[in-house]
Amino acid sequence: MTMLKDPSQKYRKFKPLHLPNRQWPSKTLDKVPRWLATDLRDGNQSLPDPMDGEGKWRYFQMLVQLGYKEIEISYPSSGATDFDFTKKLVSTPGAVPSDVWLQVLSPCRRELIRTTVDSLRGAKKAILHLYVATSPCFQQVVFGMTNEQQIALAVDCTRYARSITKDDPNSGVEQWAYEFSPETFSDSDKDFVIQICEAVKAAWEPSVDNPIIFNLPATVEMSTPNVYADQIEYFCTNMTEREKICVSLHPHNDRGCAVAAAELAQMAGADRVEGTLFGNGERTGNVDLVTLALNLYTQGIHPGIDFSDINSVIDIVETSNKIPVHQRAPYGGELVCCAFSGSHQDAIKKGFSAREAAGLSKTDPWIMPYLPLDPRDIGRNYEAIIRVNSQSGKGGVAWMIKRTLELDLPRGLQIVFSKIVQKHTDMLGRELQAAEIKALFLDTYHLEKNPRFHLVDYEINADRTTSPAPAAEAGRTASSRNLRRRFKGVIEIDGNEYTIEGIGNGALSSLANALKSLGIDLDVADYKEHSIGAGRETKAATYIECTAANSNLKVWGVGIHQDVVQASLIALLSAASSFLDSRSASPVPFRPKKSTAADQHLVPTAEAGPSRIEPLRRQVLAENEPASGADVQGSQVVARLEEAAEKGEANGHAK
Ligand SMILES: CC(=O)SCCNC(=O)CCNC(=O)[C@H](O)C(C)(C)COP(=O)(O)OP(=O)(O)OC[C@H]1O[C@@H](n2cnc3c(N)ncnc32)[C@H](O)[C@@H]1OP(=O)(O)O
Ligand SMILES: CC(C)C(=O)C(=O)O
To answer: Which stretches does UniProt call biased (Basic and acidic residues) (predicted)?
Structure first.
């Protein structure tokens, strides 16, 4: 089987209406239409397994809660399921709010119209909807009828419908409305449509207070949306007694343009739209009411429908239709509020930071790269916005850490940690979940447990013994020299305790100095801190970037503690631990360097190892030195994840 080389014989170009004076292109969409949800009729009739009564009941209640006031509930003459459901709905007290219209569909067949009307006995507000296809194709292929015969059928059925509904005081329904659909409208001759609708209107005799609904379907979408809009404008401007008519749209999505068609056709004068949630319906579906409503909302117009808990709506829609809502479905799809790619994440993160910095609230203007709708307005949280895979960059990773740990990583650390994350995503070939990234961070920077270093005890005092300041400090006062600090403490490394001492300008540099005595020679190159939380629960987060002496090796350390000094010491030990681990997948046991002139404060309190750390460190550095001084942390977590990947440990993710 092949596609035709020249399809022009088989498929004829759609002939658009000639409407040179069209007005709709200069109109804007600024009012909410009357919505009709036909999920329980057009949507339901297209399902492989149509809903049972219970399913319809649940779906109907959802539509009511969302705010729909006109709901097409059934095709009662189709059989017991729809007939019984309709009867149950109208006879159950309180099941239908008094401002909700129940719509039912019937073909132009007297006996079926009778059954349809009977099913509604007990309803407060009911719309009887009749249809007959008016296109040449249907006239010839399906009915074998002329225009005149079709008009006669439509008029006869409308008169009959009228006699058993609004003209019958015993119909059992408080208020009747009537809808007529020239099915296949968009493929019909426009003047014939006007003719048949005028005849139906005359037969029904609508009023301004109770207008007749002319529903103009694109039963099969056949052309571009502007052509449909022209057809609607033509109908609106050529029908008499426009004030007694509600013009309704019923677009299908065969060409994927149903939403556009519905929007342009409203600009062309339509008052009402029939569709379904997430566009379920015959073939490619009906127009999607969620998209239409939220398109209005993102233009600052409340659609009158409440999608503030869209996940619950999706749950019911999916359960009822047994068809999943596509992950890319506008607004509602699982992936639409979510960015994986680095530059998108970066822009979104900056957008949120700017919002936060400006102190903007939920109701302030939404100016956000890549996100047309604030996910919180439809009940989505911000956690799901950014997800991390191999296409992600530092912005996304930093966002995750901010969301999960409340840590504002400095730019340098973002760059380093995102490379670690990247290694994992590349290696695993999949997205990393927020919890995994959080665990990776905690582990990489030894935040839950530093496996190698433990500060057993320490004190930091002003150092009174320091000799006079060197030449560079000659200008300083005596009191500033007294700011020098002496660190004295006991540190446990790989299970062995060492007493160390060091002097520096502050707590951090005195500990760094003390560590030198163990052969751990780190210069603090960058330091950042911020608070986490507020009040009594406030903690300090400290980030330190260290350079290993005489090498390009750079390591980051992170410390979190209620006490800001302790946070910085922990951060330095976090860096020191990573420095020792270097790139080796399995940690090399620590052996302290024997005391030298520079190590005058080293006082081992436990058995010292047989070899010195310095040669070992040199060896590790020589083997692992990154050309550009790149970070080498996270290797052990990589090893563990590799193991997990081999075992095939999979991860699901929440919506
Ligand atoms: C565009 C739409 O979505 S229209 C709604 C479509 N929905 C449904 O069809 C769901 C419910 N339908 C049904 O249960 C059945 O089709 C019924 C009960 C309506 C009719 O069943 P049957 O009598 O067995 O007829 P069947 O379905 O085989 O064929 C349809 C018949 O109705 C005719 N028909 C089709 N549309 C209409 C109409 N709008 N008005 C009058 N007759 C029509 C067809 O020409 C055909 O007539 P024929 O038997 O003389 O050839
Ligand atoms: C009955 C009509 C309105 C219909 O469902 C259609 O044309 O798609």
So the answer is: 640-655
